Amino acid sequence: MNLVGLCVAGIGVLGGTFDPIHLGHLRSAWDVADALSLDALQFVPSYQPVHRDTPQASVEQRLDMVRLSIADMPNWSVNTSEIRRGGPSYTIDTLSHLRQQVGSDVPIWLLLGSDAFEGFVRWHRWQEILTLANLAVMVRAGAESIDCSSTNALMAQHETVALSSLQVAGMVRRIAVTPLAISATAIRAEVARGKLPHYLVTPAVLDYIQQQNLYQGI
Ligand code: ATP
User: Is any atom of ligand 1 closer than 6 Å to the C-beta of 32?
Assistant: First the structure.
């Protein structure tokens, strides 16, 4: 998708390991795109996540599963910048690159589950992230109360800013998403127990997990 000259309510960016991508990611992304009237949404599979263990599926397999999941959505795309860059995947690098592509007038919204947001102030150069993007905090099932003093302070400070204007970066908004208690960890465990994750991933991803013998016997 050509992002240059996009009009605009904004672009959403959802990063993750997507090991595998599931309906919790997809429905939440849909809810945020709808709530903020986003023009486009990018899914960013990490190459080497810095806040967690190495994914079990390969980069290619995780990328395939994302592509399969969003194939029918015209304004949704995969951003492969972390994969192309290699090495540790830092969100600041991804957003800097995207900001250069879209220019300074387009709001960028970084979508984060409430669990991820709780750790946000430990992210590499997190203050700079807020100069490049707004945060859309997706209140995740089972993590409804964000219980972390530093992120609460951040939320309070930046939510006030949010009331003042529609900014291209620096706002933090909490967005209620359809509560789906689905996690990739639980899906991998289910497959390892010999069960198929019906209705937790798209049918295409379900087929792919079977074809590639993913997550078995772990
Ligand atoms: P894992 O169980 O392996 O930790 P995950 O299901 O949390 O994986 P990630 O790829 O790590 O998936 O998540 C990417 C982003 O999507 C994170 O910001 C995470 O908080 C968010 N997210 C994941 N699952 C959901 C869900 N069910 N509802 C809302 N947000 C979600």
Answer: no
Is residue 177 in contact with ligand 1, taking CB distance under 6 Å?
yes
CATH class, 11-180 region: alpha beta
Per-residue pLDDT of the chain (218 residues; tens, 9 = 90+): 555 555 568 999 999 999 999 999 999 999 999 999 999 999 999 999 887 788 999 999 999 999 999 999 999 999 999 999 999 999 999 999 999 999 999 999 999 998 889 889 999 999 999 999 999 999 876 766 666 566 667 777 776 555 545 689 999 988 999 999 999 999 999 999 999 999 999 999 999 999 999 999 75
From residue 131, how far is each of 10, 25, 109, 153, 214 by CA, in Å?
Answer: 15, 25, 11, 17, 39
134 lines ligand 1 (CB under 6 A): no
What pairing do the DSSP bridges indicate for beta strands 40-45 and 11-16?
parallel
Which residue has a Cα nearest atom 8 of ligand 1?
A: 184
DSSP state of 109: E
4 CA distance to ligand 1 middle (Å)? 29
Q: What is 36-82 written as a DSSP string?
A: TT-SEEEEEE-SEESSSPPPSS-HHHHHHHHHHHHTT-TTEEE--HH
